[in-house]
Write a structure and sequence with these properties.
Blueprint lengths: L2 H13 L2 H8 L3 H15 L5 E2 L4 E2 L5 H4 L3 H15 L1
Antiparallel strand pairs: 1-2
Amino acid sequence: MRIEQLRSFIAIYETASFTAAAEQLYTSQPAVSRHATQLEEELGGPLFVRTTRQVAPPRPATCFTRRPTLPSRSLTRGSQRARL
């Protein structure tokens, strides 16, 4: 599991959109989609139910969505402080 995959997962979860997640992360939609697919392969199952109009986590994936933001936000804050 890489931090980029986790950041993409969090952004998709928060925005319920691959496109909006990509905009939030200042990256491309295919990159966000690739990160989500890689994470799903690593974890062995779908983290999102995808339709043409909506993205939502399936019930089993909700356990993964409870606390994923803590490590990602800590790393982001740390890297921002290091740049100052």
